[in-house]
Amino acid sequence: MTATDRSIELINAAAQAAADKLAHDIIAYDVSDVLSITDAFLLASAPNDRQVKSIVDEIEERLNKDLGAKPVRREGDREARWVLLDYVDIVIHVQHSEERVFYALERLWKDCPELELPEDAKATRGKAAEHAEETAAEQDGELR
Question: CB count, 10 Å around CB of 59?
Fold first, then answer.
């Protein structure tokens, strides 16, 4: 079994919305062969809680406005460190960069096929590492 056309449409719209809000390391997996509860997962991250919330809000607004989709469940809003949006067909995880590294969800789904995403979303790969290096360099400069 593979992800449905509707699931892929939702994933692509969500990935583009996340990229538009400067999410880092956007990736999606077709998990339909290993899970019966959903077709695909989208993972994205951001370096701070405010940006996590902004990305989540943009995804939710875009999917509702453009595709008429509303999440059946939304978890993690209060802390905005890891927000989960469950659309039944797809599940979206937007994590603070620290949680993304700690929980490493990619490890769990590495055997599942990766879904093709819009170019803007693919261009976000490696952004978390770049941001971490820039932040470290800035902090190093302040310590001198």
Answer: 28
